[in-house]
Design a protein that fits this description.
This protein is an alpha/beta fold. The chain has ten helices and 16 strands. It has a five-stranded mixed β-sheet, sandwiched between helices. Strands 5-1-6 form a three-stranded parallel β-sheet, with helices on both faces.
Length: about 260
């Protein structure tokens, strides 16, 4: 979901870091902890509530670490330095909705995807019209977050009356009051907003391709990568990942939006 401007500088750093250490799984096992980086300011994925770190990604990290027989040890760091910190060996993994991109895969190894996200509409619960694409909203009002990627995407659609708002609370209020006909956000946030909002809203159509988010680690650690993948895949099979996902979003976000 997030875009980094540091990857070009990180390619050589990450490559160098992978050439002078034993597999990190040995260190994880010996210290009894998986060192995990998160932003800590990115609700509902990771944030502080009454001073305690919580959120979906925090629960996922604890779940994975538990299945590996260790504890999750968290570091909070701003997004603009999080990948550089991984390349420098300050932590073992990042669990912070890091999107899989070809350039990032040049610099780091990644686990199997653990969340999928795509642009998705939100509509009123009693909405009978079927808006199956942004083009279907021609002549209708669409609420978006000001300055967001979704604002740009909406404005690129022909004939859509785009209304920009400071954030989701404002456009959801206008949606519920019929001042806009639909709203647009990321499917993960749509699931969270629908689950937590008292307003009469529901998920609408997915209107873009799904992106994959996974857990990056420094290259040259195949045993750690295999252990992380096994922990994730076991959590998919036994339903524990689904339970964490439904706690935060009401749906299983390990599946693409169209399959939920």
């Amino acid at each position: 979901m997030k875009i980094s401007t540091l990857l070009s500088a990180l390619l050589l750093t990450a490559s160098a870091a992978s050439t002078h250490a034993a597999d990190l799984l040995d260190s994880v096992k010996s210290r009894g902890s998986l060192r995990v980086a998160v932003e800590g300011t990115y609700p509902p994925f990771n944030f502080k509530d009454k001073g305690e770190l919580t959120g979906f990604d925090v629960d996922v990290a604890k779940l994975i670490a538990g299945k590996m027989g260790v504890k999750a040890e968290f570091t909070t760091i701003e997004w603009n330095g999080i990948l550089a910190g991984l390349a420098a060996g300050k932590y073992d993994v990042i669990v912070n909705q890091v999107g899989l991109t070809p350039k990032r895969e040049e610099a780091f190894d990644f686990t199997v995807p653990y969340t999928y996200s795509a642009p998705q509409l939100i509509v009123r619960k009693d909405e009978k019209r079927e808006f199956k694409s942004l083009d279907a909203l021609k002549g209708f009002k669409l609420g978006v977050g000001q300055g967001s990627n979704f604002e740009q995407k909406a404005k690129a659609a022909t004939g859509v009356d785009v209304r920009s708002y400071p954030g989701a609370p404002e456009y959801l209020q206008d949606l519920a009051a019929s001042r806009v006909d639909a709203a647009l956000n990321d499917s993960l946030m749509v699931a969270y907003l629908v689950k937590t909002s008292p307003l009469p809203i529901k998920p609408g159509a997915v209107v873009g391709e799904a992106d994959k988010n996974a857990i990056p680690l420094v290259k040259g650690n195949p045993a750690l990568k295999a252990a992380l993948n096994k922990a994730l895949e076991d959590s998919y099979k036994d339903g524990s990942f689904k339970a964490v996902s439904e706690k935060w979003f009401g749906v299983d976000v390990s599946k693409p939006p169209a399959a939920r």
